[in-house]
Design goal:
Blueprint lengths: L10 H13 L5 E5 L3 H8 L3 H22 L3 E8 L7 H20 L1 H7 L1 E6 L7 H13 L6 E9 L1 H16 L10 H5 L12 E4 L18 E4 L9 H35 L5 H23 L2
Parallel strand pairs: 1-2, 1-5, 2-4, 3-4, 5-6
Helix pairs in contact: 1-9, 2-3, 3-4, 4-6, 6-10
Length: 301
């Protein structure tokens, strides 16, 4: 199964999509909490891993829908650090599924380049098996020049770990590259896994759960939250369009809040001398170190 499906739209679906694009703003960044794979498997009397595989197939449809409707960035919550607490059989099965899908990705880099899709894995991938780390690093390097749609796969991820890693990054470089007066909320935000991504405009969670499960808690202060009872493998194009419509309906209520947030961020940046050459050099060093790490992991035997 390809990472981007060849979904065939009906005439009604094409008209509905075109109407939404004309009548309202399309979210730039959509985050999906893909919940319900195991419940779907139980309801269909199939293996849990097959349920997760069906979920990946649905992600391929969603990427096609996002590309066609005009979404520029997608983040998916694929594997939480909390998932390590599940049975070893299920965790191993999920890792094998990830191996299969990332190996398939490397076989279709030309297709991803055609669509301009860049893959970024966000999370503490050092917690993963070395061979899976290698596949992920190679996928990120192979697509790093693409810029039409960014797919962030949150794997071995929680918000608490992301914030902890950001603090450790500041502490690790604190005595060398930056001064105590440089440390601010804005600087910490720039040390998160999502440093190069805008906050999600829309968060779509399936399966009827109305919680965020430690997902992007720092980034979601101005996001529209949309919850659906449908299980992830059963999501349809109409569920997707309903979430876009909910965003168009509710986003205006957040406009004033977003403006205040932007002003607050600018004030914090000025307070911490965020735009100084020293801080910008520090952030460039972080980017260079991350890419060097990817190169080393991708080249490992």
């Amino acid at each position: 199964m390809s990472w981007v499906s060849d979904y065939q739209y009906s005439l009604t679906e094409r008209i509905a999509m075109r109407t939404l694009r004309i009548c309202g703003q399309i979210p730039h960044h959509v985050a999906f909490v893909m919940d319900g794979n195991r419940r779907f498997a139980r309801s269909q009397h199939i293996d849990k891993i097959e349920g997760h595989s069906r979920g990946f197939e649905k992600l391929a449809d969603c990427l096609r829908w996002c590309l066609d409707v005009g979404v520029r960035e997608v983040t998916t919550f694929a594997f939480s650090i909390e998932n390590f607490k599940r049975s070893s059989e299920e965790v191993d099965g999920l890792f094998n599924l990830a191996r299969e899908k990332f190996d398939r990705l490397l076989q279709e880099t030309a297709r991803l380049e055609e669509h301009g899709i860049r893959i970024r894995v966000i999370g503490n991938i050092e917690l993963l098996p070395p061979d899976l780390q290698k596949l992920m690093a190679t996928a990120m390097l192979s697509t790093e020049r693409n810029d039409k749609l960014f797919l962030n796969v949150a794997f071995a991820y929680t918000s608490r770990d992301e914030i902890t890693q950001a603090v450790e990054t500041v502490l690790r470089h604190g005595n060398e590259d930056i001064e105590p007066t440089d440390i601010s909320e804005r600087l910490l935000e720039e040390c998160l896994y999502t440093r190069h991504s805008p906050p999600p405009d829309l968060v779509f969670r399936t399966s009827g759960e109305t919680r965020l499960s430690d997902f992007m808690m720092w980034q979601l202060s101005t996001s529209v939250l949309y919850f659906s009872n449908v299980l992830w493998p059963q999501i349809t194009f109409w569920h997707f369009l309903a979430s876009i419509l909910a965003y168009q309906r509710d986003r205006w209520q957040l406009d004033d809040f977003r403006r205040r947030e932007r002003m607050h961020s600018l004030q914090l940046a000025k307070t911490g001398d965020f735009y100084s050459e020293r801080v910008q050099k520090f952030l460039a060093t972080i980017d260079e170190d991350k890419r060097k790490l990817l190169v080393r992991v991708a080249a490992a035997n």
